[in-house]
Specification:
Strands 1-7-2-6-3-4-5 form a seven-stranded mixed β-sheet, with helices on both faces. It has a three-stranded antiparallel β-sheet with strand order 8-10-9, with no helix packed on it. The chain has two domains: 2-151, no CATH class; 156-190, no CATH class. The chain contains five helices and twelve strands. It is an alpha/beta fold and 193 residues long.
Amino acid sequence: MLETAGEAVHDGAVFGGAGGGLAGQGQPVTVVTICREPPDVVRRFAAWHRHLGAETVCILFDDPDDPVISEMERFGWLRAIRCDAGFWAALGLAGDAPFALRQVAALTHAYRSVRSGWVAVLDADEAFHFGGRGFAEVLAEVPAQVRGVRVRTAEYMVAGPARPESVGRHLALEDGFAVAMRDVPGQGAVADA
């Protein structure tokens, strides 16, 4: 579910228009994260968001020696940034500063480096899921004057091949995944997207 972003939020991914202009239909999408995750999580994050139509995926690696960086650097659509001592010093921080401070500084740096279009910020162990639609289709629904949106979170549980009998009252099958649902007055159980 997309909502207009009126202020900074901490429970859900945030899309914002970059470059000073109003973002709208047909604008490029850059997905940004900072991570220290296993290689398979990083690969899945990058591939999935590229599949959804991200023009650029920007991954700031909290571990500058992460072995998956060299693999990621070969993709022209992926910006792999090593968060080494020089990177943190350029942002006015020490590499051992609390992660929350480093996270905000790194994500702000990445956001400011995008010149136009939408910027989507989320954790590397999270993924957008829009019910079979990509970024272009979802963002086409956003009025041109809206400068930012928030995507409310929903928990997905990968349970191998999903079986209807394994789906409880607040779960539904979607694309082979069990999707957590929530009750919405007047609508019943719906998935956040």
